[in-house]
Amino acid sequence: MKRRLNKPLHLSPGDTVGVVAPAAAVERTHLERGVGVLASMGFRVKVSERALARSGVLAGDDRERAGELQAYFADPEVKAIFAARGGYGCGRLLPMLDWDAIARTPKIFVGFSDETFLLNMLVDRAGMVAMHGPMVAMDLARGLSTRSFEHMKGLLTGEVGEFAMDAREIIRPGVAEGELIGGCLSVIVAMLGTPFAPSFDGRIIFIEDVGEKAYRIDRMLVQLRQAGAMERAAGIVFGAIRPVEGNELEARLMARFIADQTGELKCPVLGGVEAGHGSENFTLPFGVRVRLDSNARRMEFIEPALS
């Protein structure tokens, strides 16, 4: 039976969007540049008072970061929440957040990388669609490609409903449908065996990562497979999997390891979708039903993400 998730309201010009820092410490110049991009899209921007806080490598104390995120979900003025950056730290917040309270005020949340922790919990615990997409002091500050920027803006404003993403590679043939979940591979694996591990049953798992040696990618895929996640999934789609410093030998080894770990699956597996680290990083709504079609080499989003 198809599950009904809460779909946050789309954004309109003049809406207030919030910027929070739930993970690693943020550089002021990068934050200001990214906030300027949000303002240029016609939104009012409310930046967390603690966005530039520091506690070692983190953007402030754990409880302060969790409290700020909770407060922005509760704030009726804020219509969407953007993560400032990833890095490290979101996993530490999971036990501190009131997911039932967040579920009562569904709104757009955008982030990726370390925010994979939050994205999957927003889908599974809060029962809402969440956006795997560009972050303020990182992607927006550096600049997105024109088509990635327009895609993100169209999704957030409701102008883009159903859409499709092309895949460069057929790793395993087939056709399947299911809710999209996943994100950064190292974070997905870090969630396994915890109370916060996402459910993989009948779902499409999106996987991406960056800066890892090929053997580490293989080790994480082995763990994901041995945990039963791959066998329970309806399908798997790989986004950007970038080796350290673009090493071509490492890239070839990664491709071999991905083939090794998915070769005996019965579900379709596609690769090369432009989402995640080191790609154009197209925004992907998690919790939305998608259709993988190896014949067309496409991942099709078969329902709108927002209401």
Question: Can you walk through the features of this model?
Answer:
With 307 residues, the chain is of the alpha/beta class. It folds into 2 domains: 16-156, Rossmann fold, CATH 3.40.50.10740; 163-301, LD-carboxypeptidase A C-terminal domain-like (Glucose Oxidase, domain 1), CATH 3.50.30. Helices cover 32% and strands 24% of the residues. The chain contains 10 helices and 14 strands. It has helices at 28-40, 62-74, 99-104, 116-124, 136-142, 146-156, 185-191, 214-226, 229-232, 248-262, and strands at residues 16-20, 44-47, 78-83, 108-111, 130-132, 163-166, 169-172, 175-184, 204-212, 235-243, 269-271, 284-286, 289-293, 298-301. Strands 6-14-13-8-9-10-11-7 form an 8-stranded mixed β-sheet. Strands 2-1-3-4-5-12 form a 6-stranded mixed β-sheet, with helices on both faces. The longest helix has 15 residues, at 248-262. It is globular and about 50 Å long. The two termini are 21 Å apart. The model has no long low-confidence stretch (mean pLDDT 96).
What's the quick description here?
The protein is an alpha/beta fold and 307 residues long. It has helices at 28-40, 62-74, 99-104, 116-124, 136-142, 146-156, 185-191, 214-226, 229-232, 248-262, and strands at 16-20, 44-47, 78-83, 108-111, 130-132, 163-166, 169-172, 175-184, 204-212, 235-243, 269-271, 284-286, 289-293, 298-301.
